Amino acid sequence: MDIDEKDMEIFSYEGTDYKTMLTDKFRKHTPYEPEDLTKITAQIPGTMLKILVREGQYINPSKCLFILEAMKMKNKVFASVSGRIKKIHIEEGQIVTKNQLLLELGESESIFKKLLEKSPPKEPKEPKKLKRLKEPKEPKEPKRAKRPERKRKEKR
């Protein structure tokens, strides 16, 4: 297979440029977007049994928000960050689908804002120096345990 120079493209990864051929599938893929911590979604489909919070209430990660029944199991739903509840999008008894928006949080803390900011790309680390290994010692012969002598019965 001949590769033309015109098919080659520059691909940057972690600060290093590579000259390569990119597939159509790679060109069409959507870039990664970090999860929005202000939106709590259903991780599994089920029925909303009980809503334990109300709009405007301040919550923290230890506070149970909902009880979601899925496959005859009652699952407690918690927030991953602290914040004030901006809007609840579901009602008790409602059937929810996977990834359905359940509630939105409003911004309330500076720590919360820092979590939402994108961090700059990390510089590659320098490789660690290898430690010199010690010469292996010659294995010693295992000592055999002495068996206690048995008393032999004399033959008659």
Give me some keywords for this one.
mainly beta; OB fold (Dihydrolipoamide Acetyltransferase, E2P); four-stranded antiparallel beta sheet; flat; 2 helices; 156 residues
Structure write-up:
The chain has helices at residues 24-28, 110-116; strands at residues 9-13, 16-20, 39-41, 46-51, 58-59, 64-70, 73-78, 83-88, 95-96, 101-106. It is mainly beta. The protein has a domain at 33-116: OB fold (Dihydrolipoamide Acetyltransferase, E2P) (Beta Barrel). The chain has a four-stranded antiparallel sheet with strand order 3-10-8-5, with no helix packed on it. A four-stranded antiparallel sheet has the order 7-6-4-9, with no helix packed on it. A hairpin with a 2-residue loop joins strand 6 (64-70) and strand 7 (73-78).
What are the SSEs and their pairings?
Layout: E1 9-13, E2 16-20, H1 24-28, E3 39-41, E4 46-51, E5 58-59, E6 64-70, E7 73-78, E8 83-88, E9 95-96, E10 101-106, H2 110-116
Antiparallel strand pairs: 1-2, 3-10, 4-6, 4-9, 5-8, 6-7, 8-10
Mean pLDDT: 80
Q: What do we call the CATH homologous superfamily of one domain?
A: RNA polymerase II/Efflux pump adaptor protein, barrel-sandwich hybrid domain
* Helix/strand order: EEHEEEEEEEEH
Provide the spatial order of strands within the biggest beta sheet. 3-10-8-5
For the record, give the distance between the C-alpha atoms at the N and C termini, rounded to a whole number: 93 Å
CA-based shape? flat
CATH secondary-structure class of one domain: Mainly Beta
Number of helices: 2
CATH topology of one domain: OB fold (Dihydrolipoamide Acetyltransferase, E2P)
> Would you report the number of β strands?
10
Structural class: mainly beta
- CATH architecture group name of one domain: Beta Barrel
> Percent of residues in helical segments?
under 10%
The profile of the biggest β sheet is: 4 strands, antiparallel
Name the poorly predicted regions.
none
